[in-house]
Request: fold
Amino acid sequence: MGPIPLQRDVVHRPGTVVAGQGDGTPAVARTSLPGIPQASSAARRFVRAALADWTGHGLPSAGEFGERLTDDALTVASELVTNAVVHAGTTVELLLRLEDSAGPEPAALVLEITDHHPARSVRDSRAERPDPAEYGRGLQLVATLAESWGITYRTGLKTVWARLPGDDRYGLPDATRAEASARRRGLPAGGTPAPAGSAERDDAGWAGGGGLSFLAEASGLLAGQLDEDLVASTAGPLLVPRLADWCAIWLESEAGGPAAVPRLAGVWHRDEERAELLRPALEKEPLRLPGSVGTGPVPLPWPEAAERGKGSGAALAHRIVSGGRTLGAVLVGREGADHIPDEVAALLADFVRRVGLAVGAARAYTRQATISRILQRGLLPTKVADIPGVTSALVYEPGDDGVVGGDFYDLFPCPGGRWCFVLGDVQGSGPEAAVVTGLARPWLRLLSREGFRVGEVLDRLNRLLLDDAMEAAEAAALMVAAAGGQQIQGDGQNQDGSQSRFLSLLYGDLVPLPGGGVRCTVASAGHPLPLLLRPDGTVRPAAEPQVLLGVVDDVAYESQSFELAPGDSLLCVTDGVTERRSGRLMFDDGDGLARALADCAGLPAAGIADRIKRAVHAFAERPPDDDLAMLVLQVD
Reply:
């Protein structure tokens, strides 16, 4: 089942529904939402209104879908719209299509969420399929609820679609159908219907397989989040309405301290309007449980703001703890109850422990990512030099894994009217790569300014990489990694346990010529070869391949010299471009980079860089997982 084509000539305001007429015409509803945080809530209201509208029209399929489909549709719409807002930041189009049964196929609801930034893909660090979200709860949850889902890229658009089946079409008896639906949602099977206005639940069922199934599902969903607010946004909907009628989650600040006030990360209620009324009251009285209460349940008075008319209920709180440190608190409430059963309180305690582990892991990741970004900025030049008679364009996109990468670049003046350019890639990533990058770039500048020729610079840099003086720097990097709990990757590890220091490098210099144009001398050490583009579209390699730096000590590097005439362009890239993968294929297979560059004839330097970058991103549905760097030098 593929995505349903969107009718781009019909865009309605939020709340507008286009319905079929009950005569075989497909029921379709669509709306356009602004790229703001409130879009997710608006999407849920729109889905609920569309399904109610179809039911009111007496459409054949709509009346046969139960509460299960409605809940799943609300969750999927919320997750996909959140993804689009967080990653794309554009206007979002939401489309619903109700499909009647056809032969053995049951009726189904198809949702499509489209944004206008196809270069920013939704992500999921654990998914092998087209990349779902690192933010929101991602498509892990969508994949659990949907019969099928996928991502479609169009010019200027990205659409994520999901197909939700209606299991009420299988002719099951009511009890059997309810039990099957409960199993799919992680609820305990059996029991009697809950009173109106309270969560459907059988508390005795949570003490057995139902509780284990719930915790297993929760563990998988919480473990995939790399941001503490997204952990909270995952945890809340898992609790409501399965275990509670409403819940609230507070998070302590990273700095901590007695003066810090816990932050209300989210409020969830079976009735969304009630959640909005409950939030202001809970914000006024932040919940902080003392450490003396341990990690067990703490009964609390029923908040006045949670009352429904004259009703009341039971409220229970748990501390969120990780590594012995309090990270926040979870408060849950059940309406119309004088207490929360022990088996549910125990299940909540297990669940909150998993929330604590997820929040702790998310904070550790955030700290690592912050340090990596700061370190990455320190390893790269704050600006590159302007070369007389030459226009340069630079693209640098670090890998989005929160770890400092190995790609680096530089463009700087040297004595004698020369300008030197560098594009390098250190084997590996993290502290080891940072040490090599942090030493290689200043060494290159020093050697270049000492007047060494291009080949001689690489000879000396190679010996420096092989020198024992590097061992101390590398040992320091390994200590940093060990102290931070980071695992050192086995790739590139020598038999004696030390990490390899391989470096691929493209290095050259430019000398302006009196009559126009420049003289270019370049050498490539295990690096993708630079490509020379002539104005007529002719493309050829501009260097010869040579061995990586830091591999052997008896190599003598050679350089090639040539003239760049006005209109000529030199493209230099790292392997994040040439080895960009789509299945078994790589971007540079069959001289793919050269063919893409030939299509850039006549473009300015910035236009060439932008077109190649777009081609690299469009080569595969998944976003690039490696650092991407390219430098274009064009003679004016």
